[in-house]
Amino acid sequence: MLTNEDVIIVGAGIGGLVLALELHAHGVPCRVFEAAPEIKPLGMGINIQPYATEVLDGLGLLEALESHAVVTGEFLFCNQHGQEIYRSPAGRAAGHVFPQLSIHRGDLHAVLLDAVRSRIGSDRVSTGWRCVGTGQFDDRAWATFAHGTEVSTVEGAAVVGCDGIHSVVYRELFPYGPALRYSGTNMWRGTSVFPDFLSGASMVRAGLPAEGKIVVYPIRRDIDGRGNNLVNWVVEIDTPLSDPTGVTALGRTEDFADRFARWHFDWLDIPDLLSRSVGPVLEVPMMDRDPLDRWSSGRITLLGDAAHPLVPLGSNGGGQAVLDARSLASHLAEDIPVEQALDRYEEERRAHTASIVLGDRRGVVDLMVREVDRRTLGLPFERLSDVISSEELAVLAVPNYQDAEIEPSPYV
Ligand SMILES: Cc1cc2nc3c(=O)[nH]c(=O)nc-3n(C[C@H](O)[C@H](O)[C@H](O)COP(=O)(O)OP(=O)(O)OC[C@H]3O[C@@H](n4cnc5c(N)ncnc54)[C@H](O)[C@@H]3O)c2cc1C
Asked: Of 12, 100, 105, 4, which Cα lies nearest the Cα of 325?
């Protein structure tokens, strides 16, 4: 049973902030510690799938999020010649009760952080506090933080590592656990100011990482009063790993623009899109980690990317962190020992997220484009139906995650 002590949340990313809100909703006190000195509207776009917008709606945040976001209406898969291979409705348009949202990470964070500060209290979120160690006794757990020139230890009923893909809490718990694994694909992420294309709310995946792939979707509408949107793009190219630490670095469009120099589709001009890039370009190696047998030890556990980093092919990582947060908070609110609550949380979430990690590792999201590319030797086709039947596409469109118990795929 939780005593009236705080749950110590390490990291104020998507998972940490949603966990704080869920705990608060269940009457469980918490404190959040974030390494960054300030939480700024950095980053690019993210897609939140209906299974996660449902949880955010339960927290009363959907209206605020929708007011910033583009409500995703469809998915389009095409080859490097811009020829359509598969199109399907998304979110509400596909019959889900809750929408799929394409949103700037800064907007998402601002909504979550405002809610945490106003509901739980600004003094419950400390920025500039970097976790450097964790530990526990029978009746409590602690985390040590470096902040400024000081080091402080904070005790609580439990410690939850929500500190992302390079988690310190993970390494503390499992010093000999598996390391991050590079997928062989590097990503460059950026945003451009660009007019509507297709439905104005389409998420496009074009090409394959071997030659060059780009994912494009709008995340803010009419940002200049002249109908131009802020459009998120992610370039994926198979490349040897340049920096073995795998950390995000600043990149340049010149690093990859030549791959796309001839991608002038009738409906979207990729060189034009890239030339209208605004703000920084980030270079991110695509990494995951073998699923773990355990996420917890005693009163300390992991959540989100710290627990199950995955390659971001299926727009799932953030959404899974949201589901973790809901599950963990509900079990910590039960009248049972903390260790048992953490066991129940793992039981609910571990196999499920492992199946997504392994499915994304197999590149399930690229299967349709890959098969068409194989049959056409990468050349344009005359008629898609001469290359592949709609029945074959329908089979490939449902990602074959090993464990059938998965969330809806991003495009069905
Ligand atoms: C290119 C790309 C595209 C993606 N697209 C999508 C998408 O469309 N949909 C989707 O659902 N997911 C997507 N993801 C995945 C998603 O971004 C992550 O899964 C999600 O951010 C994980 O949330 P988190 O809270 O676990 O970690 P994070 O969001 O990484 O947050 C971790 C937080 O912990 C802090 N921290 C780190 N170390 C410490 C420390 N020692 N002490 C204190 N604080 C610390 C960090 O500063 C950060 O604020 C994408 C990822 C990438 C790279």
From this structure: 12
Token pair of 218 as six digits: 């709008």
CB atoms near residue 146 (< 10 Å): 15
Cβ atoms within 10 Å of 199's Cβ, excluding its own: 16
Atom of ligand 1 nearest to the CA of 305: 26
pTM: 0.94
Beta pairing, strands 181-194 & 229-238: antiparallel
Question: How do residues 264-321 score in pLDDT, each as one tens digit?
Answer: 999 999 999 999 999 899 999 999 999 999 999 999 999 999 999 999 888 899 999 9
pLDDT in tens, 7-65: 999 999 999 999 999 999 999 999 999 999 987 666 689 999 999 999 999 999 999 99
Gap from CA of 187 to ligand 1 centroid (Å): 15
Ligand 1 centre distance from Cα of residue 163 (Å): 8
Q: Please state, as a whole number, how many other Cβ atoms lie within 10 Å of the Cβ of residue 150.
A: 8
Contact 143, 132 (CB under 8 A): no
